[in-house]
Amino acid sequence: MKVKLLKGIKYNKQPYKAGEEIEVELKDIAEMIAKGVVSEDTEVPVEDKTPAETDINKMKVDELKEYAEKNGIDLGEATKKEEILNVIKEAEAVANANTTS
Question: pLDDT at residue 50 above 70?
């Protein structure tokens, strides 16, 4: 997939400058977005996205905390994995209910 770089990077052992358009593998796009190398508006094909339900159940505590922060979910007093998972799932259920009503 072709992307326009916001920052200079080294990709597949080749240096690239900001503003260049390069071909990248789909698996690398999410990381490039997270690092600010490509725009957050970059559309990742649907088949490359993994459903959140599957992902969060496999995440570690620190990954869950990061996921909650990125999605604006207040974990409150939750510190254990199961508690954090419950808070995230409840917040997502409420959000989904609000969008379908």
Answer: no
